[in-house]
Design a protein that fits this description.
By secondary structure, the chain is of the alpha+beta class. It contains 13 helices and 15 strands. It folds into 3 domains: 301 residues, no CATH class; 77 residues; 58 residues, Arc Repressor Mutant, subunit A (Orthogonal Bundle), CATH 1.10.10. Helix 7 packs across helix 9 and helix 11 packs antiparallel against helix 12.
């Protein structure tokens, strides 16, 4: 099997749960995680006859903001549609979603390698209920009459606002996919529209993978979708497994089946679930209980103006204002709580204790100091105490450095041969001999001077 003669064609569908107070089409609480099953329900999200949906304004605005952040066009006309399919977690027998006229179209996002990933659409829909499977009485406290497995349904999640973000099939590697997902994760958190907690199912990832032969222009005539993955690394492993699996099938002169598959985390492999449906299988038609939406451009402009700063802008501001390195800035921005804390702590530390901005950044990132329930003043003071250096007589320090250089000829030779990281080893030895906390930068400069 030679997978190099095939070019992967990869697209993504990502579902993001919004953190609105209420559900998409009713007033039930959307804060369902960890709650007692079937306690956040009403006739609307249970799909009872005669119940009518009322759209959640905040959820729609947040969906549009995600589209704006992804450089999408926002059509002035949009509507909801019914997506018809039968499954036990779908009480009504259909899902209220969007089909041909979604809220956001034709966006893009750029990767670090310069490649632009096209965003096909960003649309709004409702989440389904959750199925809990019990595989026989051996794994369950409950017993069934025939001692077989069964499934339970929790409707607390039914109707929670869900945004689906669909890309063009522009990815060629698992690494490109993971970078895109990290950027998207940062984006929705920066907007404040979702917690994007992967373990809680706030963000579910569904790659679709196919292979075309080297030099082939047209897209492959099949597509394999892997559903409901909750980890960037697992997405990467699913893609790599599928590339290998599909290449082996193509090498035999066969065509991979167009299907939906699941990811087995224990085996790092995918398993077949069902044949993949086409759009016509869902019998989409306009939702008759919800009128279409006609946006006013002025309203959209106000919505855009209300958006918070996004990741790249925040990161550049930290670099410019506090002169910290890009890696530290990216790490700080990735964590909203840390981002809110850093600026005030760094400023207080600099003014009150003379603590360099980069030192504050390093301490918060690497030492993982608690910053959620601690004031910026207290945090700045703690950092100053932890990084406080002792004064040492110059002659004493010179003598210690000379001893360390004399006792570590190989390390010195390695440094002179270009292995610059050895300098950190020598600094550590000087600190140990001095038996006190010294200014590492000052020690480094003195060692380098000696080694010239």
């Amino acid at each position: 099997m030679d997978s190099k003669k095939y070019q992967p064609v990869i697209g993504l569908e990502v579902h993001v749960e919004l953190k609105t107070k209420s559900k998409m089409f009713c007033g039930c609480s959307a804060d369902y995680f960890g709650q007692k099953p079937n306690t956040h329900t009403c006739p609307v999200c249970l799909g009872l006859p005669g119940a009518l949906p009322v759209p959640n304004k905040k959820a729609i605005e947040w969906c549009v903001m995600i589209g704006m952040a992804l450089n999408c066009e926002i059509p002035l006309f949009s509507k909801f549609d019914r997506k018809n399919y039968f499954y036990p977690d779908l009480a009504k027998g259909y899902q209220i979603s969007q089909y041909d006229q979604p809220f956001c179209l034709k966006g893009s996002i750029k990767l670090s390698n310069g490649k632009t990933i096209g965003i096909t659409r960003v649309h709004m829909e409702e989440d389904t209920a959750k199925l809990i499977h019990q595989f026989g009485t051996q794994n369950s406290k409950l017993k069934t009459q025939n001692d077989e497995g069964y499934s339970l349904i929790d409707f607390n999640r039914s109707g929670v606002p869900l945004v689906e973000i669909v890309t063009e099939p522009n990815f060629e590697t698992a690494e490109e996919v993971k970078e895109y997902l990290r950027k998207l994760h940062q984006l929705v958190r920066a907007l404040g529209v979702s917690n994007a907690d992967m373990e809680k199912g706030d963000m579910r990832l569904e790659p679709n993978i196919s292979l075309k032969r080297e030099g082939q222009i047209d897209l492959p005539s099949y597509k394999v979708e892997v559903k409901n993955i909750n980890s960037f690394n697992f997405v990467g492993k699913a893609i790599e497994f599928e590339i290998k699996r599909q290449a082996e099938i193509l090498d035999k002169g066969e065509k991979p089946t167009q299907e939906t598959r699941g990811f087995n985390e224990a085996k790092n492999s995918t398993v077949s679930q069902r044949s993949k449906e086409e759009a016509h299988d869902y019998r989409y038609f306009p939702e008759p209980d919800i009128p279409p939406f006609r946006w006013n451009q002025e309203y959209l402009d106000k919505l855009r103006a209300s958006m918070p700063k996004l990741t790249e802008e925040k990161q550049q501001e930290l670099i410019n204002k506090y002169n910290i390195n890009p890696v530290s800035a990216a790490t700080i921005v990735y964590n909203p709580d840390l981002y809110r804390t850093f600026a005030s702590t760094a400023s207080i530390g600099q003014e009150a204790f003379g603590t360099a901005y980069e030192v504050t950044a390093n301490m918060l990132i690497n030492k993982k100091l608690p910053y959620i329930e601690v004031s910026s003043e207290e945090l700045a003071k703690n950092i100053a105490n932890l990084t406080k250096v002792s004064n040492i007589d110059d002659n004493k320090l010179e003598k210690i450095i000379d001893e360390v250089i004399l006792e570590n000829e190989k390390a010195v030779e390695d440094y002179k041969n270009g292995k610059e990281t050895v300098i950190m080893f020598l600094i550590g030895l000087v600190m140990k001999k001095a038996q006190q906390k010294l200014d590492a930068q000052m020690v480094k400069e003195k060692i380098i001077q000696k080694l010239k």
